[in-house]
Amino acid sequence: MGKLLIVAGLAIAAIGLLISLGVPFGRLPGDIVVRRGSFSFYFPIVTCIILSLLATLLLSFLRR
Q1: Which of 1, 5, 18, 60 is in Cβ range 3.0-4.6 Å of 23 for a Cys bridge?
Q2: Torsion sign, CA atoms 44, 45, 46, 50
């Protein structure tokens, strides 16, 4: 459990660093944005896929 918390904290810190450096996290090409008048819909499909792949790699690394 301790290892998981340390890795999760480091991952959150790395994401925070990337966001503060100006990396457009959450607005990647391929994310779906629909704007019609006063209505807007945003679905971050590519962001979800990348986060899923990173989580899968991280968890498979921690299991070993």
Answers
A1: 18
A2: positive
